[in-house]
Here is the input.
Amino acid sequence: MTASNKTAVVTGASSGIGAVYAYRLAARGYDLILVARRADRLSALSEKLSASYGVKVQTLVADLANEADLAKVEDVLGNDASVRLLVNNAGLARLAPLAQASVSDSTAQLALNITALTRLTHAVLPGFLARNEGDIINVASVLSVHSLPFSAVYSGTKAYVLAFSRGLQAELADTGVRLQIVLPATTATEIWDVAGVPLSTLNQDSVMSAENMVDAALIGFDRGEKLTWPSVADEGLWEKYDVARAALFAATQTGKPAPRYQAA
Ligand SMILES: NC(=O)c1ccc[n+]([C@@H]2O[C@H](COP(=O)([O-])OP(=O)(O)OC[C@H]3O[C@@H](n4cnc5c(N)ncnc54)[C@H](OP(=O)(O)O)[C@@H]3O)[C@@H](O)[C@H]2O)c1
Here is the structure.
């Protein structure tokens, strides 16, 4: 797949998964708008990508947890008609038991992983719907469906990304706008050191490179997958999970307490 005169916006492009998306999308011919806080990293990446792939690369230095900066990015997404792909990738993890974590660490994760992702999706959607064309890639996590004793807030934010994206996919079903949810497992990026859990302390057999993760996710994207679990060999596992989830939801629609909760 190649793109001409189409722009992809990648949030969190200054490192890790977002930087690899930037490389791969440039190779596919997308012009790019790269968003993150570290201007030096974005400039270096921008120079490399425009020299290697001949695409136009703009950098947008923004703290997506800051109201004025977020509004700046929303403005671009709402008004630049060349934008055809939004990769909602910027994310933050602070991994610690809640009682040992600061409130500001918790709210920083909510602001970036939930609020910014939701607002950027709001901003890009009207143009995509008007043109009946556009793609959104929301980077969730395997922790969207799993919580560990130190990931209550992070897992909660990624569960939100999954639930939000599934609802939006249903809303977009009859349109030309597509949304892919990517659920990476442990990926070798800087997020771990920032999170307070050094990558070196993890089971190295469970760690995927960011390149392999993004390449697998883009194969899923090209296939039109709604959900992509890059590290999961048995795709039937998600189907079974989703069937069980739908059956549980259907079983809630009774209008009365279950017999075990009825007074004798
Ligand atoms: N690595 C994993 O094991 C793993 C697993 C599952 C899901 N994920 C998800 O993958 C996504 C990418 O993470 P990564 O692993 O590639 O981590 P990373 O290397 O730490 O990258 C995070 C990116 O987000 C940007 N960012 C952080 N805070 C920001 C803010 N306030 N405003 C704007 N940008 C901000 C960072 O850039 P600046 O610091 O320059 O702003 C950086 O470019 C995240 O959503 C993460 O939750 C990662």
In short: The domain at 7-235 is CATH 3.40.50.720 (Rossmann fold). The CA atoms of residues 3 and 29 lie 5 Å apart. The mean pLDDT is 97.
